[in-house]
Amino acid sequence: xxxxxxxxxxxxxxxxxxxxxxxxxxxxxxxxxxxxxxxxxxxxxxxxxxxxxxxxxxxxxxxxxxxxxxxxxxxxxxxxxxxxxxxxxxxxxxxxxxxxxxxxxxxxxxxxxxxxxxxxxxxxxxxxxxxxxxxxxxxxxxxxxxxxxxxxxxxxxxxxxxxxxxxxxxxxxxxxxxxxxxxxxxxxxxxxxxxxxxxxxxxxxxxxxxxxxxxxxxxxxxxxxxxxxxxxxxxxxxxxxxxxxxxxxxxxxxxxxxxxxxxxxxxxxxxxxxxxxxxxxxxxxxxxxxxxxxxxxxxxx
Amino acid sequence: xxxxxxxxxxxxxxxxxxxxxxxxxxxxxxxxxxxxxxxxxxxxxxxxxxxxxxxxxxxxxxxxxxxxxxxxxxxxxxxxxxxxxxxxxxxxxxxxxxxxxxxxxxxxxxxxxxxxxxxxxxxxxxxxxxxxxxxxxxxxxxxxxxxxxxxxxxxxxxxxxxxxxxxxxxxxxxxxxxxxxxxxxxxxxxxxxxxxxxxxxxxxxxxxxxxxxxxxxxxxxxxxxxxxxxxxxxxxxxxxxxxxxxxxxxxxxxxxxxxxxxxx
Lengths: 301, 264
Description:
The structure holds two protein chains of two kinds. Chain A is mainly α.
């Protein structure tokens, strides 16, 4: 059990936790700003950007993917404005059209391009490849202290850890402006805070988390983690600081319980195959939200 | 010192002497779409006074306040504070937004909200010390909310919320206080508490400007009025500017004569 767990289950669980936390952290601010759907939108829009970045550079690497995603976001904004003005369509509908169309375009692009050599295809875009992120150099728990074995960890782990570090570091550094401008934008501006820039910064943080998490865990988890852990956490407390803490707890719980249920759950009930870890993690995060909605201490009347 | 002397002394272009005025607007025009909401407004606030900004709904009162604070960028015109630029004087200005502009469900406590008034002092990372906590409690006590420090803000009544906002403005230790409808939807006790604090501020030499709705209390509460209906309709001391004629001009047919008679 020790060897198998460390080599096959530990890396995906840790990557899942890191991805879940990196997305849930900016998700808290999106939730309080009533912009949760922006997280959803980002994870859709970035797909064509990532594919184009891959087609140009030929490698899956975070920095070109970030630029691709940023360019795609820009195209999305221009398209939304164009549809809204030219078609006189309401903004919500214009957004919905652009996000799904761009995601669909990304899917077509993926299908037509030769990405057979890398982990980039339609299925990965949706539910990642968490189960394949295994650690072949591990011989057991002792490998966690062995530098040679540690260097054989899946690169997604380091990438996700870095993304989480950046998002958490920015949140810590700019905590007061983030809280102030999210609570009371007018007052924040009156004390000289650049509230537009802060709002943009939150979206960029969310995009960073989404792009870094994208090829490891897929967009299903990204979308779920932007919304479910923060929404459940909001029902647990009336303090923003505790809400962030609870959202981290729920993100980790979703990743751990979801992965274990997906990998071992079917076996427990006698079924042969395992189910998608990404799907199960997102489902667990939804169940946590459902439970908090029914029993949490700070449900609103 | 006259304006002319000032210009020669500092080598600056000063069209008129505004250095004494905590807040002066010249030709301020604000537009949300194609039509201006506030059109070419001049306003000069006198130091150490309480001014009510009055006018009908949609007259641009809140917009004017936001333009004065740089929250909305005017299409045209100039805002000066103590003769200088707004950005150089922000530490001396406190703002109380409209209560309805806030999501009171936000997960935060009363003392946190008041602490936000210390943002300019605390900056990004400076530690919150005992003196900051003491300052917060002092401001809460001044508005009679000291027993509610640990309440979630959504659990307060409208009047209590308004008092918390005033406490936050007090924490800013400003010289100029701009309030957007501080008496809207509050109970009588809160209204009395707020006006007491505002008059104290004025008596300490601070300047208070409030968007105000209730014409019947203008004479009791304020020294000066600024009348607006998209354009500047009048400005001056309550005795001189708060007249039947001025109100008729400002409110047009939209205000019952009864209200004006009471105000007159």
